[in-house]
Amino acid sequence: MCRIADLRPYAVTVAGLLEAETMAEICPPETRVVPGEGATRLLIPRADQSALIGLLRQLHNLGYTLLKVESDAGNASDLRSETKQDKEHKT
Questions:
Q1: Is 14 in contact with 66 (CB distance < 8 Å)?
Q2: What integer is the mean pLDDT of 14-43?
Q3: Phi and psi of 62, rounded to 5°?
Q4: pTM for this structure?
């Protein structure tokens, strides 16, 4: 059973550029896809470890190379506020 206390923000970095549409299908809700120089960072505002492990397995099965996984607990409010701003911008 997942408790609210078990949810935390994560940042996952993979090699290469990922399409936002593809990632929307496999990533937890509200995940932001941030392309960079030869890598893509996935900012996940709230997920438990089982959701994170599921995402990592799907990325592996699609052939992506995992570069870094971070628990971004210090930036939790930043991740959530960016997501809210993105939603407001789209409407």
A1: yes
A2: 87
A3: -85, -5
A4: 0.71
Q: CB of 39 within 8 A of CB of 14? A: yes
Segment 9-29 mean pLDDT: 86
User: Could you tell me the CA-to-CA distances from 46 to 17, 20, 38, 49, 58 in Å, in that order?
Assistant: 23, 18, 25, 10, 18
> How far apart are the C-alpha atoms of 21 and 62, rounded to whole Å?
14
Beta bridge partners of 11: 43, 70
Token pair, residue 38, equals: 């030869």
Cβ-contact 11, 32 below 8 angstroms: no
Contact 27, 19 (CB under 8 A): no
pLDDT given at position 24: 77
Domains of the chain: 4-90 (3.30.70.100)
